[in-house]
Amino acid sequence: MDIEVDHYAALDLPSGEEGAKLSEIDISKAYRKRALELHPDKKPDDPINAQFNFQKLKASYDILKDEKKRRLFDDVLRMKREMQQQQQDSKCRKMRSEHIFVPDINLARLEEEEQIAIKLLGEIARIREILLSKKESSNMCVDKEKVLKVSWGKSGEDYTCQKLKELFSNFGEVEHVIMSSNNKRYALVEMLSKDDAAKAVSSSVLHNLLIVPLQPPMPPFSKDAEGSNNTNL
Hints:
Elements lengths: L6 H4 L5 H5 L3 H15 L8 H19 L1 H31 L7 H30 L12 E5 L9 H8 L5 E6 L6 E6 L2 H9 L7 E4 L9 H10 L1
Antiparallel strand pairs: 1-3, 1-4, 2-3
């Protein structure tokens, strides 16, 4: 599954939450309309590009008409939107806190890591799709509270997916380890449970690794806080 392509947009359909609500009939109608427009017979002067564009359209339609593949793609789109929103919120907070703009190298690095994380989440979704073709599973979503962002410095030890899996297995079962192809010192580790992920974050054993939860766990609901709010009302 190509996570860089918006398969809804390829069919001239709305994306995001609105796209997820579209019916199979809506998708089929949109495909037939675009297929008539992009059919190679309509482009006799450019048969190579016409055939390529038509094949891309067909690939997008094949994903959207398949319920499981479409659900995976919707999950990836949702995660991308959430991470982009977090990135935007981080920029806004920084602009509010500073009267004079000073380029922040750490912020640039954070933005780069967020983009890498989006691609790696898509890789996890792709792996789940492969597993799904072999074994039915109802748990299609990636729980971001179980996913850890792991990075390490150039002066430290180099890690592989296998070595990271062995290290993090000390805290519980590891489901996936995905390492960036562009940044060999950055990876995502998906634990089996949120508790196992929390153990890894709080551990002092992995002192040479920077471990950050992809999404911090929500604070527990406090009845005392609710009572305090009611009192203030």
